[in-house]
Amino acid sequence: MVKTPMNALKKLLTRLTTRLMLLFLLVTVPAAPSCGDKSTTWELVQSFGETMSHQEARGRFYLLLFFVTVIILATAGLTWSFIKNNLSRGEELELETNPDGQELNGNQKRAWLRLAFKKDLLFKIKDDGEFNRGQITNLSGGGMQFSTGRELTPNEQIRVSFALGPDKKFNLDGRVVRVMPSSDGQGEKCFLTGIQFLHLTSAEQDRIVNSVLQEQRKLMLGKRTKKEKTCPVCGRPNLNKAEKCWYCQAPLEEQSESRQKSLLPEEELLDQSGGASSFVNSTMDGNPRSEGDNTPEWLRRVRELIAAEKVEEEPSDEWQQQHLFDTPEKGIKRNSSRSDKDSGLSSSMPEKKDKATKPIDEKPHIKQPEAEEDLPDGFTHFSTHPDD
């Protein structure tokens, strides 16, 4: 049988329990009396009574001690079983050691966190006191790469001065590790120089790494944000998926550069508040703006199309005013059998005169007769009296 700590503990608990039970019986059970004469019996009875009273007092103490011991042993056994079961559930973990025998630290990893961006800097060789200009192309916590027109040699020590913000200015020593010839956007020859920082403190490295992380976060946020399309005619922003400008209905094109070239001059673009430019105002007034000789043909034609669309959109209300004075098409139809006298009657009808003010003493239901006028044949004056 394989000996284990658990089996040994069980045997120990069994032995202790057996001995405690025997001790408890030995203490609590009184001695049996022997047979004899009456005096001896009486003495034995008295002795038995004294022994019983004494044993009862001692028995309570040993009984309490027994129960306390059992509780302690049970608690210890349960604790040992709980610890053993929980330890057996988990797997034994082995500590991985570095095969090279070198401890890894965070500074080595952070030194390779590199970000590409453009910043101006000044540098000088330690032996030379003259500063030269350059432009940072990428930066990390352990070094940088910059472009300059001056060729440096590897292992040459220089001092660089640059700023990543209003309160983040650095003056660091570095060692040139590589130099690669290149050319800038204008075709001029330059050199891409990579350096490694020397004597860099942990505080300076933390500031550089924090700046790199902030710039990287801004770039990632800019990629996730949808860019707006700028109208090439009026210069106003539109939604990213719009195909035509919301304001001037000009077609929108994809932005290949950070800023689109506008079809209008810079000083005549519509401002962001919505004010009209001088070009739009002159178009609405019908007086197109005079253009210079250097205006390209396509731009002039586009402006003419815009001006023509503006003129077509202007509302014309002259026909409405003329319609008020013209005879409507659906007038009163006259019978063909009406004579020329009827037509002459309509033309010779007198205009309605303004009512004169009635005198106070005149009755309101009596109407003053109007002046007699010549009427055409077949017509008589209306009677002013209802009884007639």
Structural descriptors:
single chain; 388 residues; alpha+beta; Thrombin, subunit H; two-stranded antiparallel sheet; 8 helices; membrane; cyclic-di-GMP binding
Question: What does the model show?
Answer:
The structure is a single chain. This protein has 388 residues and is an alpha+beta fold. Among the domains are: 5-84; 112-224, predicted glycosyltransferase like domains (Thrombin, subunit H); 229-306, no CATH class. Helices cover 37% and strands 17% of the residues. The protein contains eight helices and eight strands. A hairpin with a 6-residue loop joins strand 1 and strand 2. Helix 1 (5-28) runs antiparallel to helix 2 (38-89). Mean pLDDT is 69; it is low at 256-280, 286-292, 327-341 and 343-364.
CATH top level assignment of the domain at 112-224: Mainly Beta
Low-confidence stretches: 256-280, 286-292, 327-341, 343-364
Instruction: Give the radius of gyration.
Output: 58 Å
Strand content: 15-25%
Biggest sheet descriptor: 6 strands, antiparallel, barrel
Element-level helix/strand string = HHHEEEEEEHEEHHHH
CATH architecture of the domain at 112-224: Beta Barrel
Terminus-to-terminus distance: 152 Å
Strand order of the largest sheet: 1-2-3-6-5-4
CATH superfamily placement of the domain at 112-224: predicted glycosyltransferase like domains
CATH fold assignment of the domain at 112-224 = Thrombin, subunit H
- Helix and strand composition category: alpha+beta
How much helical structure, as a percent, in the residues?
Answer: 25-40%
Overall mean confidence score, pLDDT? 69
Q: What would the principal axes of the Cα set say about the shape?
A: elongated
The DSSP helix count reads 8
Strands, count: 8
